[in-house]
Structure formats: structure tokens, C-alpha cells
Amino acid sequence: MSETSTATDAPGPWRRRWPMIKKILTYVFFLLVAGLLISLARNLDWAEVSRTLRSYSAETLFMAGGAALASYAVYCCYDVLGKAYVGHDLPIRQVVPITFVCYAFNLNLSAWVGGIALRYRLYSRLGLRASQITRIFTMSVLTNWIGYLWLAGAIFAMGWITPPESWKIGATALRFLGVGLIAISLFYLGLCRFSTRREWTIRGHEIQLPSWRLAVIQMLLGAANWSLMALVVYFMLSQKAEYPLVLGILLISSIAGVITHIPAGLGVIEAVFVALLSGEMSKGSIVAGLIGYRVIYFLIPLLFATLVYILLEARAKKLRKQRDDSEPPQPAAR
């Protein structure tokens, strides 16, 4: 009996090697993030960034910064909503810094780094299971895009955007697209309100419909975040274009950036804004405003997020050490 038990309880080769593999993967992850940050910094024309910011008044920068701060605060509510959806016991004071870090890295270095990798790392170090983190991430993505659907649908359906003649989609087609987007968002809302079946299993992953009230909050939070992002652009364009037009163009350029898989939509957002705003402003003014928008909304938050990330890693290491020290010693094997 004792020999059988010893053979059964003996850890397999993968379990014995896992601590070393985990340590190596951690180092690789840190090197990847550091490499991406260095690459981003080297590819920026810092002199142009400095000239652009110096050309703005303090009032404009203050209003744009306030709108950016409000947008990040709204986005941090996404994972607070995920807390209510999943039902985990992490306090909000721990959830908000993680969401802020993930969003800033997501915007600058792609969803794989910020939305997925960092979220899994930081939440798992605080004790959440992979299944819980997956549901938090799913709730965040849904909140963002459900808000996008009905807001973009309303903008397009009202005819506030007139596509250039060179585009394959015309004004009428864009209105029909808007109606379709609104219909999709309403279908989701109706599903959360009236569906009798609340859970599905797809490829081993359990999907649970949120409550109707939670879905409404999702739509409001998602739309509020997109609206505040557009407000930053509106201020950085010196309010020379109408806000609904700026909002509509940002929504179009954002989906174009997602389709092209370019981190931060670099170049894509500029191309769409120039194409749709060339009749309202000069190309130089548009590009300068978008450079300012990237600095205010992307780069400055990324600098703060990097510092917060380092603090979160240090705190997680300290908490883990305290937890290990508090555990009772295991009895010696006989």
C-alpha cells in the first residue's frame, strides 16, 4: 500500500519542471513587453511631438486631459462590471489599477499584450482562476463593442457621416449599416432580458448571459467611453470640426484599425480623418491634432501604466511572500 501510494503521489516530470518553465516564461514575457516599449519609443518623432504640444494652449490641453482621464475612469468600470458578473471577491481598489494598466497597454501594444496577457498575469497573481479571468475579459470586450454598436449605429443612421466618393460604401448604405448595428445591439439586449436559457458551452468554455440591467449598464459604459475618446480628439482639433462628425469618424477609423491589426491604429486613424475632414480643415491641422491626441490619450497614460505595472508586480510578490510565510510548515515525510 505504501509503495503504491508513493508511486501514485510522486510528481510527474512536467510537474517537477513547471516552476522552472514558469520562471522562464515570466522572463520571456518581461523581455517582450520591454522590447515593445523600446520599439514604440524609437519609432516616435519626439521632436514633432514636442512641437505639436507646445503649439496648444494650456486650456486646450487641460480640457483634452480631463476628457482622457474621464475616459480611462469609465473604462476601469468595465472590470468592475466584470467583478459583479463573475462574483469574485477582489476589492475594487485592486481591480481598477489592473484595468488601467491593461487598457493603456492594449491601446499601444495590441490586445494580445494588454487585453489578454497582462490581464491573465495580474489577476492570476491575485488568486483568480483562469476561467474567472476569461469571463472578466469577455465582459470587458462585450461592454466595449456593444457600446460601439449602438452608438455607431445611431451616428450612421442619422446621416452625420458622408463618405468620400472614392469609398465603396455610399451614404445610403452607411445609413442601412447603422440600422443594422442598432438591431444587433437591441437583439443582445433582448436576449439578456427574455432568453430562458442563460448558459451555453462553446468549445469547453461556459458562456453565461448577464442580467438585463447589467447589459444596459454595458451599453451605457461602452458608449460613454467612445464618446469621451472622441471628445479628446475634438479638443485636440481645436474644436474646428463639429463633435458628432469627429465622433463618427473616430468610430469608423477605430474599426478600420481593428481590421488592419495595426497596434494603436497607427496611420489608419490619420488616413480616415484626413479623408473625411479634408473639406473642413487643412491636412496639417488634422495630423497635428491627431499627434496631440495620441500623446494625451496613448503615450502619457502608457508612461503612468508602466509605473503602476511595476508597483503591481512588486506588491504581488510581497503579498505572495507574506502568504507563503503565513502557511504552516508541511510535516516531514516518513
Structural class assignment: mainly alpha
Beta-strand level of the residues, as a percent range? Answer: under 5%
The number of E-state strands comes to: 2
Query: Shape, please?
Result: globular
Q: What's the order of the H and E elements?
A: HHHHHHHHEEHHHH
Side-by-side strand order of the widest sheet: 1-2
Residues in helices, as a percent range: over 70%
- The first-to-last residue Cα distance is 14 Å
Reported for the largest beta sheet, the result is: 2 strands, antiparallel
Q: Count of DSSP helices?
A: 12
Average pLDDT for all residues: 80
The gyration radius over C-alpha positions equals: 23 Å
Low-confidence stretches: 1-10
Textual characterization of the structure:
The protein is mainly α and 334 residues long. 77% of the residues lie in helices and 2% in strands. The chain is globular. It has helices spanning 2-9, 13-42, 46-54, 58-86, 92-109, 112-125, 130-157, 171-194, 212-236, 243-260, 268-277, 283-326, and strands spanning 199-202, 205-208. It has a two-stranded antiparallel ribbon.
Per-chain topology:
Blueprint lengths: L1 H8 L3 H30 L3 H9 L3 H29 L5 H18 L2 H14 L4 H28 L13 H24 L4 E4 L2 E4 L3 H25 L6 H18 L7 H10 L5 H44 L8
Antiparallel strand pairs: 1-2
Helix pairs in contact: 4-5, 4-7, 4-9, 5-6, 5-12, 6-7, 7-8, 7-9, 7-10, 8-9, 9-10, 9-12, 10-11, 11-12
Care to give the gist of this entry?
The chain is mostly helical and 334 residues long. It has helices at 2-9, 13-42, 46-54, 58-86, 92-109, 112-125, 130-157, 171-194, 212-236, 243-260, 268-277, 283-326; strands at residues 199-202, 205-208. It has a two-stranded antiparallel ribbon with strand order 1-2.
